Amino acid sequence: MGIYDLDLQELPLFEGLKADEVEQFIQATEAKVKRYGKEVRILKAYEANSRIGIIVEGEALVIAEDRFGNETVGHRLERGALFGSTTAIEAVSDVLVLWVPYTALIVAGPRLGRIHGIVMRNLLRAFCRKNVLMMQKLEVLSQKTLRERLILYLLQQAGRQKTDCVKVPGRVQLAKELECNRSALTREIGLMKEKGLLECGPDWMRLDEARLREER
Asked: What is the pLDDT of residues 139-149, one digit of tens each?
């Protein structure tokens, strides 16, 4: 698959650019695409990195690691998401990443003119969205009970995905994201289903918000 067959102009970083302008940006910055398999660490914690990564295909997870090696699962990264910090990034599925060198991004400004200005504007917007995701994660983890965590997580995802039928990861991964025991999560999901608060499928969940209001 060629780099120009990936509809890169549809990514948030290139919003406002035409396909040929994106090609011009790729050539000027010498950006490269690389594929990673499921569960591969795209970046290791504190690994030296001189590039911005953009998810072109697939999904990955942000994983924070303290100096003792303890890991905490952060937010998910989907098509269009940017990364490149000191946190670890792990592929949830097969992932295609566009790598843009930081230095090239900066020095290419005079050559790219308007294109560079649009990309830098979109980059700032992306950083703002990333901060919102971090705050939402903190809000979920601050909930007193596992049920409250799950409900808020699903409500956030519903808003992000623009549907009440939320696509969710498997139980193991979901437990990591909610920072809870998998067995406890499975038990809580079962109880919510029994009470009619939650519907589930193989890879989706739907809250019954009317029943939730009655419960409260």
From this structure: 998 999 999 99
The answer to whether 13 and 119 have CB atoms below 8 angstroms apart is: yes
Tokens of 159: 């808003």
Helices 171-178 and 146-161: crossing angle in degrees, nearest 10, is 100
Given a contact cutoff of 8 angstroms between Cβ atoms, the answer to whether 77 and 83 are in contact is: yes
Selection from 176, 171, 147, 168 nearest residue 71 by Cα: 176
Decide if 181 contacts 174 (C-beta within 8 A): no
If you search the block for the tokens 């030296």, which residue do you land on?
Answer: 48
Q: Alpha-carbon distance 94 to 112, whole Å?
A: 32
Note the pTM of the prediction, 2 decimals.
0.71
55: left (phi over 0), alpha (psi -120 to 50) or beta: beta
